[in-house]
Amino acid sequence: VRSNKPDPSSNMEVTLQESSTAADLKNLLIALTFPKPPANITPEILFGKVLVKMKEITGKVTPARVGKPIFTGVLSDKQWHQIQELQTELHKEYRMRREMLLKRLDVTIQSFQWSERLKNQQDRVVAVYGNKRNAMKVEPNVDLADLLAARDDLAILEKTSNASVRKNTQSSINKVMIGMVPDRGGRPSEQQAPPPEMPSWQQRPGGGGGGGGGRG
């Protein structure tokens, strides 16, 4: 009988892939200066200790620094599942939108490269654009954790014409006054109505040309 048992003298390495949830939890414990938890600790005990630590830290700062959560309700398990389904649908929707916008951006950059002035600089364009393009991902990075972490100031909307916003967006182009331009028309009220359709009893059958073939 031959066994496929690995040779203990060989240098065998086992690589474990850490999930994103485990990575976030580890970063949370490191940020809160927690020691490495024991392997047999339950989630209830672990998150209970995290909650106590968070209350201790937030109690030492002013309320304005932390802010109020935008969501303070209590949901049942069924409602959480419904929210998860909505989040999944929104994730698919915004992934498709991001993919479409990135494709339009790629096509726009490609059209610029057709210019005679850029034919000798295509490598430079690809290098500059490639670095920025690689940072733009198709997959949205928003999940339910962002909903729970959002603060109430997220619901405050500022108009784009507000002075606090315009000081960062105004430019010399906005001060250019466009003069009179020729009237190009195109108003629906100025268009002539189309002629009425010929009644069916007046239309020629078969659509063929008239006249019989003569001799000759």
UniProtKB/TrEMBL annotation:
Biased segments, Polar residues type: 163-174
A Pfam family that the UniProt record links to this protein: DUF2465
Gly residues bias: start-end ranges: 205-216
UniProt-listed InterPro entries: FAM98
Region feature (Disordered): 163-216
Signal peptide: none
Cellular component terms per the entry's GO annotation: tRNA-splicing ligase complex
Family: Belongs to the FAM98 family.
Protein name per its UniProtKB record: Uncharacterized protein
